[in-house]
Specification:
The complex is a heterotrimer of chains A (about 350), B (about 375) and C (about 450).
Chain A (H helix, E strand, L loop, with lengths): L1 H12 L11 E11 L7 E9 L10 E9 L2 H9 L5 E3 L5 E5 H6 L6 H5 L8 E6 L2 H5 L11 H8 L13 H9 L6 E7 L4 E9 L4 E5 L1 H12 L4 E7 L2 E17 L5 E14 L4 H4 L1 H25 L7 H9 L3 H10 L4 E12 L5
Parallel strand pairs in A: 1-4, 1-5, 5-6, 6-7, 12-13
Antiparallel strand pairs in A: 1-2, 2-3, 7-8, 8-9, 10-11, 11-12
Chain B lengths: L6 H7 L5 H24 L6 H8 L2 H33 L6 H16 L3 H28 L5 H8 L8 H8 L8 H4 L14 H21 L10 H7 L11 H31 L14 H20 L2 H36 L15
Helix pairs in contact in B: 1-8, 2-8, 2-10, 2-14, 3-4, 4-5, 4-12, 4-13, 4-14, 5-12, 5-13, 6-12, 7-10, 8-14, 11-12, 12-13
Chain C lengths: L1 H8 L6 E6 L4 E6 L6 H12 L5 H10 L3 E3 L3 H10 L1 E6 L2 E6 L9 E2 L11 E2 L4 H11 L5 E8 L5 E8 L5 H13 L8 H8 L11 E3 L2 H9 L3 E5 L5 E4 L3 H4 L4 H4 L2 H30 L7 H11 L6 H21 L2 H21 L5 H16 L3 H39 L1 E2 L2 E2 L17
Antiparallel strand pairs in C: 1-2, 2-4, 3-5, 4-5, 6-7, 8-9, 9-11, 10-12, 11-12, 13-14
The chains are: A alpha/beta (about 350), B mainly alpha (about 375), C alpha+beta (about 450).
């Protein structure tokens, strides 16, 4: 044992390389990729680098942004190393932002760089920057304690949990990119003066952008596809407005096999009323539940038809169809051919657990 | 136990061509072999495979057999060391020299493998118990993750009708090879030892088989799952511990994984060493040796040197190719060995009317 | 007689020799007053000889009193004198009177292995007292005590104690073999004996356990272990031991079940921490900063910003400081000790961090290491952990995270490989086929 250690020590002394102190590294917290339109150097890669400091307080986070244009992402990163004084480290890069133009007409194969690098987390968040990625990188929220922390908290659901925010992990994006019968979804991050606005979602087919949903539709999508709680359902009621906060939501998809498949989406939700005209619930508890359900169903149906007409399938109905029929390649071809005519039916069961604290 | 390296990859490659059926077949074949073997070894308490063969077969037959089994063990150990070094190198220190990494692994395994059988067994038990909670936690995490696509798994399960491929069956039966340890560790078993809970073998094996195969598909989809080299590491990387001290599950996974790999290599080195030693003429099987004899060190050092030689020849692709062939070879050897032990048991029973093993209570972790 | 004794001893100044005369008869007397109990000498010899002298009675007393033994052999005299006996010659015959001065007449308080609610009495530095304490606690007819002397000069008395029904024969044989081999001039402490009995000089972990608690000795005896009592040392050596014995404090048996378990669990966690934390720090800050979550990595990064040298030098500096501090507070007299702790711990730590010599995270790491090292109930085991920590640090310097994992693997294998007097050191499922005489509980 002892001798083994001595030998080990001696041999290890020959090594000594491969290490780099933590303070000799520059952490990339956010990476942005934009489309330049220049065929020679189509990618503009921007990195947001963390400058850490001893004191940790709100607003003390400082970052540095480096940008370069290059024919591929890997080359861009190599080139960027010449711009900074410390080793670039992607180990903590948890947010990747793709420019809207890139998504609109980029080449998705170039993105395989993300999937291939070992130090890039597969649980990194991916989003679309509007109008472009660089402008999103430039935002420095006041409240940030650690560089880049604002986006981490938003997407990781550790901080805010908004039903308008769709979270897409890198591995999920790759999966959807390759999967038959399931298409990628990306949240849209818009830069405001000192903060981000993430309340839209962008739907892609296998190669490029097809549709951007507005905030209301985004919420509906998030509720039905991701079963996002802490959302709300609202409808006008008499002269007031009823807002139901949804605590729990469960969805269940059934696909009836036929010449033209019928997709039945059953939604079960429960929650408490947050706003309603006084005494409304007392009078017509069941009625309100039913009306809310009906309204929600029709909204979701509209959304589903809109998505279908755009030719994308973010819900993964195609995959579910294959799963229920245990289908093979021919089945999928059939599904693809009939998808534009697929009919949707949404059934919603609303359960109001109570009117909140007041009657 | 050490399943993560090659098996899922081979299975996933065949996922549209009968991997599911192969899995089912493997569960049947594997548990059958395991149970039969366990039963056979029970007939010879306190004896390892070399002694059994020596006793019942002529020297000319038994020696090459033992040597051949030893070779199988050894090559298995070498493959795992190499693949493990690659994985660790890629995920922990990509800039580091590969041979340096190999060096520390080989040193550790050399040290561990050259211990006495009893020590190795103790170490296996302790380490297994240490890893089990973490391993189970990761499994729990994978199955409860919201983003696992059960649809994708069902789609793949739909390909159950395809006939199994030999390659996949061979790979999947590897899961059940745990009983192979009995070849050496049977020496430690007291007379009357009975492996309790034998019905657990198919159950555990089946669940592990399904886990290793289906979970990556659930995470990476039916098509995307193909593109990853280090399938399970990437799968583990697809999970987050929201409130964990260590945020990325992949590091927990690598922790468990490396300890399991080291255990496996220790095991293979040790068994191969014992087998080779059994080829010597004046050899006495001993479970307890202290201090460790020089021959142990020398034989293990040879294994270490071979690992280095293999590493210098191999790269990712060649390694995959070699491990595939190894798995297939191992499968054949296993079936062959089972037949031989069965014959021996039959002969032995005929010779010395049945000895009824009764009433042992010792139950080891395996 | 006096002349012979004086001649052999070279007439030392502290030897008292006298020819006593009470008017009827004379008696020669010699002894070392420093080694004898003067009260006993007075009560046992002087009073019957002088005030109440009755020749018949006195003769009867010499022959039948337990304290008096007939010592006709001249060669023995010196040995007897040196052990603290009084030699007396009466009517031409030489008797020896046992009047060894006892320094300890009461069990002491526990010092090293303090206990909250368990017995507070500890062993003393007197062999007979210790034997009494153990007999008292382990009051069984099967208890065997064997006597033995070791050390050419010190001639230290050793008692081997075990329960003859329960003892592990294999270990007993091993112990006897090893005891035969022990050759030393001076045997002063049980730790020394333990080292001489141990596997080899380079073992990192102790294979015997030293304890000052008689209740612990009794418990171990009951489990079939063997105890060694060394005269002049308040620690008994227990063997064979298992890894888990070192992490077990007597209090665990006196507390409610769950509390005891939880505390043992904490102890194991503490052991792990104190072993791996400095190396983890090195691994994380030099190789794998992505191991921990972002926010933590950034804090480490930020706190290390001012430190001018690599992390492992920082670790070595701090570890050296803390080791020095521990050493100092053990060696220093108690009242100065607390000052040293204050100066070292509070002031130096604070100043070093402010001066940018070490990062603030490192200070926390160091203190956690030190504190959790104290959690280990056995001091020789905690020394082992302290030493092992450096091995971890060194491997992590060269291999980072992987080094730590591999080192922990090697440590476990090494522990499993160790044997304490033929018994496995670390094993979960003990095969109970090997020793039929052994009864596990």
């Amino acid at each position: 044992m002892f001798k083994a250690f001595v030998v080990l020590l001696i041999c290890s002394l020959l090594a000594g390389c491969g290490m780099k102190d933590i303070d000799k590294r520059f952490y990339v917290v956010t990476t942005g990729v934009d489309w330049t339109g220049n065929p020679e150097k189509p990618f503009r890669v921007s990195l947001r680098l963390a400058i850490t400091s001893n004191k940790v307080e709100s607003g003390s986070s400082r970052t540095q942004i480096q940008t370069v244009e290059a024919p591929s992402i890997a080359e861009a990163v190599r080139h960027l190393k010449a711009f900074v004084d410390k080793e670039l480290d992607f180990g903590h890069c948890r947010v990747f932002i793709l420019g809207k133009d890139l998504v609109a007409n980029g080449n998705p194969d170039a993105m395989s760089w993300f999937a291939r690098r070992r130090d890039i987390q597969k649980v990194a968040f991916v989003g679309v920057g509007e109008p472009d990625a660089l402008s999103v990188l430039k935002v420095t929220p006041e409240s940030e304690r650690f560089p880049g922390n604002a986006l981490f908290l938003t997407f990781g659901n550790e901080g805010t949990e908004s039903s308008y925010t769709v979270t897409t992990y890198l591995f999920d994006l790759t999966r959807r990119h390759f999967e038959e019968g399931m298409d990628p979804v990306l949240p849209v991050i818009r830069s405001l003066d000192k903060t981000y606005q993430i309340d839209r979602v962008l739907l892609m087919d296998k190669a490029r952008m097809r549709l951007i949903l507005n905030p209301d539709e985004t919420q509906l999508y998030n509720m039905t596809a991701n079963e996002a709680g802490k959302s709300e359902v609202k409808m006008p009621y008499r002269d007031g407005r009823i807002v139901l906060t949804v605590n729990q939501i469960r969805t269940h998809t059934d696909i009836a096999i036929g010449e033209v498949p019928l997709v039945t989406l059953k939604v079960y939700m429960s929650g408490i009323l947050e706003e309603s005209p006084p005494e409304a619930l007392e009078n017509d508890w069941n009625g309100i539940e039913r009306q809310l359900g009906k309204r929600f169903s029709s909204e979701v149906e509209d959304l589903l038809y809109k998505i279908r007409d755009a030719g994308v399938d973010p819900y993964g109905f195609g995959l579910h169809y294959l799963a229920t029929t245990f289908g093979n390649k021919q089945d999928f071809a059939h599904w693809k051919s009939v998808y534009p005519e697929v009919r949707f039916k949404v059934v919603t069961h609303v359960k109001i657990t109570g009117p909140g604290v007041v009657r | 136990m050490n399943i993560m390296l090659f098996v899922p990859h081979i299975l996933v490659k065949d996922r549209f061509d009968g991997a599911v059926m192969s899995l089912l077949a493997a569960i049947a074949i594997g548990s059958l072999i395991a149970i039969v073997n366990a039963w056979c070894f029970q007939q010879f308490p306190q004896m390892g495979l070399p002694e059994i063969l020596d006793q019942h077969l002529p020297k000319v037959l038994s020696l090459p057999l033992i040597a051949f089994t030893a070779l199988t063990w050894m090559s298995g150990g070498i493959f795992v060391v190499y693949s493990f070094t690659r994985t660790m190198g890629i995920f922990f220190n990509p800039e580091m020299n590969e041979y340096l990494f190999l060096f520390i692994m080989v040193m550790a395994c050399l040290f561990a493998g050259s211990r006495s059988s009893r020590s190795v067994q103790f170490a296996l038990e302790v380490l297994l118990l240490l890893c089990a909670p973490l391993g189970l936690f990761i499994l729990f995490k994978t199955t409860t993750d919201r983003l696992v696509s059960w649809d994708a798994m069902r789609v793949i399960a739909g390909y159950v009708r395809h006939p199994p491929s030999f390659r996949s069956v061979a790979a999947a039966t590897f899961l059940f090879s745990g009983y192979l340890n009995m070849q050496i560790f049977n020496r430690l078993n007291p007379p009357g030892f009975r492996l309790k809970h034998r019905w657990l073998i198919p159950l555990l094996g089946a669940s592990f088989a399904f886990f290793t195969f289906f979970i990556p598909i659930g995470f990476h989809g039916t098509i995307g799952v193909d593109q990853y080299m280090y399938l399970w590491s990437v799968t583990a990387d697809s999970m987050v511990l929201k409130y964990g001290f260590v945020q990325r599950v992949v590091y927990l996974f690598l922790l468990v994984f490396s300890i399991l790999s080291l255990m496996f290599v220790m095991n293979t080195y040790h068994c191969a060493m014992e087998m080779f030693k059994a080829c010597w003429i004046q050899y006495q099987a001993k479970a307890e040796e202290s201090p460790v004899p020089k021959s142990n060190w020398i034989i293990c050092a040879i294994f270490g040197a071979l690992s280095f030689a293999y590493a210098s020849w191999s790269n990712d692709q060649k390694n995959q190719w070699a491990t595939e062939w190894w798995l297939i070879g191992r499968f054949c050897v296993e079936i062959f060995a089972t037949c031989i032990t069965l014959i021996i048991v039959y002969l032995a029973r005929k010779k010395t009317k049945v000895r009824a093993p009764r009433g042992g209570t010792a139950n080891y972790g395996k | 007689m006096i002349e012979e004794v004086k001649a052999k001893l070279g007439n030392p100044a502290d030897l008292t020799t006298e020819i006593m005369d009470n008017g009827y008869t004379t008696m020669e007397l010699c002894f070392f007053p420093s080694m004898c109990d003067s009260h006993q000498v007075k009560d046992g010899i002087l009073i019957p000889f002088s005030y109440r002298f009755d020749p018949d009675e006195f003769r009867r007393m010499l022959r039948s009193d337990l304290d008096f033994t007939y010592a006709p052999n001249q060669d023995e005299w010196i040995d007897l004198l040196l052990q603290g006996c009084v030699l007396l010659q009466y009517e031409g015959k030489v008797y020896c009177f046992d009047a060894i001065r006892k320094l300890q007449t009461q069990p002491e308080d526990t010092e090293v292995e303090a206990s909250l609610q368990g017995p507070q009495s500890a062993m003393t530095e007197d062999l007979d007292m210790n034997t009494y304490l153990i007999r008292l606690r382990y009051n069984s007819p099967t208890l065997v005590i064997r006597k033995l002397q070791k050390g050419e000069i010190s001639r230290t008395r050793i008692n081997i104690i075990y329960d003859r029904d329960k003892v592990n024969r294999q270990s007993l044989e091993e112990l006897e073999k090893r005891l035969d081999k022990v050759k030393t001039k001076l045997l002063q402490a049980s730790g020394q004996l333990a080292m001489l009995l141990g596997n080899n000089r380079y073992t990192i972990f102790p294979v015997t356990l030293q304890t000052e608690r008689p209740d612990r000795v009794a418990q171990f005896l009951n489990r079939g272990k063997i105890g060694l009592l060394v005269d002049g040392s308040r620690f008994a050596i227990m063997l064979p031991v298992r890894f888990f014995d070192f992490m077990h404090a007597m209090d665990d048996d006196y507390e409610p079940f769950w509390m005891g378990r939880v505390i043992i669990l904490f102890r194991y966690i503490g052991m792990m921490l104190s072993m791996t934390l400095p190396s983890l720090y090195i691994a994380v800050s030099m190789y794998n900063p992505e191991f921990f979550r972002v926010q933590l990595a950034f804090s480490i990064d930020g706190s290390r910003a001012a430190v001018p040298y690599p992390a492992f030098i920082e670790v070595f500096i701090m570890l050296f400081m803390i080791e020095a501090l521990i050493e100092a507070s053990i060696r220093l007299p108690r009242f100065v000790g607390s000052t040293a702790a204050t100066v070292g711990g509070l002031i130096l730590g604070q100043a070093a961090q402010q001066a940018g010599l070490v990062s603030s995270i490192m200070i926390i790491v160091t203190s956690v290491v030190a504190i959790s090292n104290f959690v280990i109930p056995n001091s020789s085991f905690s020394y082992s952990i302290r030493a092992l920590k450096y091995v971890f640090v060194v491997t992590s310097i060269f291999y980072g995270m992987v080094g730590i994992i591999v080192m922990s693997f090697i440590t476990v294998v090494y522990l499993c490989n160790l044997r304490s007097f033929g018994q496995p050191y670390l094993a979960l499922f003990l095969p109970n086929d090997k020793q039929p005489s052994r009864r596990t509980e």
